[in-house]
Design brief:
Chain A: This is ATP/GTP-binding protein. Chain A: InterPro entries: Gliding_Motility_GTPase (IPR052705), Gpn (IPR004130), P-loop_NTPase (IPR027417). The complex is a heterodimer of chains A (206) and B (117). By secondary structure, chain A is α/β, with parallel strands linked by helices. Chain A contains 5 helices and 7 strands. Chain A is globular. Chain B has a single domain, classed as Winged helix-like DNA-binding domain superfamily/Winged helix DNA-binding domain (Arc Repressor Mutant, subunit A, Orthogonal Bundle), CATH 1.10.10.10. Chain B contains 5 helices and 3 strands. Chain B has a 3-stranded antiparallel sheet. The N terminus of chain B is likely disordered. The chains are: A alpha/beta (206), B mainly alpha (117). The complex binds guanosine-5'-triphosphate (GTP) and magnesium ion (MG).
Chain lengths: 206, 117
């Protein structure tokens, strides 16, 4: 991590500044395995060039230091990409693209707290990497939709086959997308929001 | 900042300890979220801690905690500690969604905004 002194800190370019009227912001988290297109999706819909925020995570390492009898701690720096969409003069949406190492996502203090929901991006060639994260989102009570990022050499499966393979309840939407395309990525976000709306109107456990 | 910096791994806890004066990130972070919008209410003052001055400078227009973290190249947990001071004496203000706003109104506003893209 490279710390900048006050004089060298470069703030947002003038075109990246939010209007003074910006009154509140909300967030959506994009999760999924290595190289599934999370950063691509964030970049394609973001109005700013994606930025990176880095958190230092301290984890108690497995095992105990024999001589001192104290727990060892290891510090790891985890970087996350994020982008921004101004929804109106007042409301701003941020999209966080998690890094590939799943074990850090739920350690990141406050990443999922207060999030509207999550998008689980999957590559049908490597579905198994999504099992763990889907389970963790369900446990944490974070509502999500599944978006299948269509790579040219990947076989296309019927939605119901994917649903069975991922063991997803009927109500969780599964959509297809091309994360490189702005409209397609935007439609994934709209699917998530419509799902949240249907849930808000007819509450039942997610 | 100074020469001894080079000997440090910049992200190490020791370094962060110095910037925050040894305070620890409280679990609730003064209610600050990654997407809380921060707006400066005054200009940086001479002699101010450089990180605080930087925050006031980049927040001349509203900016999220995550963006402040990205521009200052400091972790959001540390930015939150620094912001707690600035908030306490009113040098910045924090903006979050109105908690009295029903979820459905917020959801509708997000859908409406996305459809206009
Ligand atoms: N054909 C095709 N390629 C894509 C698509 N989305 C992403 N890619 C490519 O896949 C590669 C990985 O995409 P990234 O967006 O970096 O994936 P990521 O999920 O952020 O990866 P990590 O952060 O490393 O976990 C890049 O070379 C992209 O150009 C897509 O929809 N179609
Ligand atoms: Mg990425």
């Amino acid at each position: 991590m490279d710390c900048k002194s006050s004089e060298t800190v470069v703030g947002p370019r003038s075109e990246d500044r939010l209007p003074a009227s910006a009154a509140a912001a909300v967030k959506i988290v994009i999760v999924g395995g290595f190289g599934v297109g999370k950063t691509t999706l964030v970049r394609s819909v973001s109005e700013i060039r994606p930025l990176t925020t880095e958190e230092t995570m301290t984890q108690a390492s497995a095992g105990v230091d024999d001589t001192a009898g104290v727990e060892r701690k290891t510090a790891t720096t985890v970087a996350m990409d994020f982008g921004r969409i101004s929804l109106s003069d007042e409301l701003v949406l941020y999209l966080f693209g998690t890094p590939g190492q799943q074990r850090f996502w739920f350690l990141w203090n406050g990443l999922f707290d207060g999030a509207l929901g999550a998008v689980v991006l999957v590559d049908t060639r490597r579905l198994e990497v999504s099992f763990d994260v889907i389970g963790r989102l369900e446990e944490a009570g974070v509502p999500f939709v599944v978006a299948v990022n269509t790579f040219p050499d990947a076989t296309s499966y019927p939605t119901e086959e994917l649903r069975a393979a991922l063991d997803l309840p009927e109500k969780v939407p599964i959509v297809e997308c091309d994360a490189r395309l702005r409209e397609s990525s935007r439609d994934v976000l709209i699917s998530l929001m419509r799902y949240l709306r249907s849930h808000a109107l007819a509450p039942e456990p997610m | 900042m100074n020469d001894s910096d080079e000997e440090w791994d910049e992200g190490t806890p020791e370094r962060l300890y110095v910037i925050t004066g040894g305070r620890v990130d409280s679990s609730d972070r003064a209610g600050l979220d990654l997407v809380t919008l921060i707006v400066a209410r005054q200009d940086p003052q001479v002699g101010m801690q450089p990180e605080l001055a930087s925050i006031l400078r980049v927040c001349r227009s509203p900016l999220s905690v995550a963006e402040i973290s990205a521009y200052l190249v400091l972790p959001p947990s540390l930015i939150s500690v620094l912001l707690t001071d600035l908030l306490a004496d009113g040098r910045v203000e924090a903006r979050t969604p109105d908690p009295s706003l029903p979820d459905i109104a917020l959801i509708e506003a997000v859908i409406h905004g996305l459809q206009k893209l």
